[in-house]
Amino acid sequence: MRHCSLIAMVLALLVAAPAPVRAQDGAEVLAAANALGTLAACAIDISGRPFCLYRADLPPVSIAGFDAELAEELAPVMDLLAADIASPEAGEQFPQWRSYDAYASHAWASGTSPFADGNNQESTSEAINAWVGLRHWAAASGNEGLEQQGAWLQANEIATALAYWTNFDLEDPVYEGYGHSYIPLNFGGKRDFATWFSAEPAAGLAIQVLPVTPASRYLGDDPARVGTNLEEGLDGKGYTQQYGDLLLAYSALAGEEQRKAALEVVDEVPVDDGNSRTFLKAWLHRLGH
Fold first, then answer.
1. DSSP annotation of 164
2. Rounded to whole angstroms, how far apart are CA atoms 202 and 16?
3. Dihedral sign, Cα of residue 42, residue 48, residue 52, residue 58
4. Which residues are paired to 192 by β-bridges?
5. What is the pLDDT of residues 196-226, one digit of tens each?
6. Checking DSSP bridges between strand 100-101 and strand 106-107, what pairing results, if any?
C-alpha cells in the first residue's frame, strides 16, 4: 500500500542516518519526525487508507537532533509526509488539510462518515502531536508558511480538545444526561464514554493524554478539572492499572503538590509500550522547573 511504503521510506532514511549526528541544528527538528511519524488522527481513513500510518513512531535518531545536511537529505520524504496530512491547498496527489475540519476547528480520525453518527475523533492529543511535528519540521526546513499553518492547526486543535473532550462546561445543558467529566470519543452525532479498544475509564482519559510530550502542558489549563477527570478516570483503582503511567503524568499538571505525590509512586506504576519510566520521571521533574 502506497502510504505504508511512504512510512517505510522515512524509516529507512532515518535508520541510515550517519552517527553521531550534530545537535546544534536539531532544536527545531526535535519533535518533527517523531510527531509527524505519529500522524495522530489527522491522516487516517479519509479516503479508505489503512491504519498503517497510525502512530508510526520513528527511531530514536529522529529526536536525537539532526544536522543541516541530514535535514536536507530527509526533506523530499518529510515534505511529502507533511503534504499528505496538511497540504495547504488541494492538488493532484493530496486534498487540502486532509482530515482537518475548518468548521469544527479540529481533525477527524475518520473522514468518510462510515457510521450513521458521522465522523469521529478519539485521541485529540495525537492530533495535536501531528501539528506539533508539522510546525517543527517547517521551522527546521525554513518553510515559514507551513510553520504558521502548523501553529494555527495546533492552537485550534488544543482549543477544541479542551472545549469538547476534556474541559467542557459541565453546567452546559447540552451535556445534560451525559454524566461524565470527559469524553473519550466524539462523533458528529453522539458522544461515547468508551474508546475503540476499551471501555475502561482509564483508557478513555489516557487516550486524551498520549503521547505525553513538552507540548502536553495545555492539558493542565484547568488544574481543578485535572483532579475531577482523574477521579473518574482512575475509578478507584489507582495508578497501578493499565495506562496508570499516562494518568500519573496527567496528574502532575494539577499542581506542585500533585507533582511531588506522583514522584513518590513513579516506580510502582506499569509503563505503557509507547512510554518509558525514564521519560515519565523526566516529565515529572521538569514540571517542577
1. I
2. 38
3. negative
4. 185
5. 999 999 999 999 999 999 999 999 999 999 9
6. antiparallel
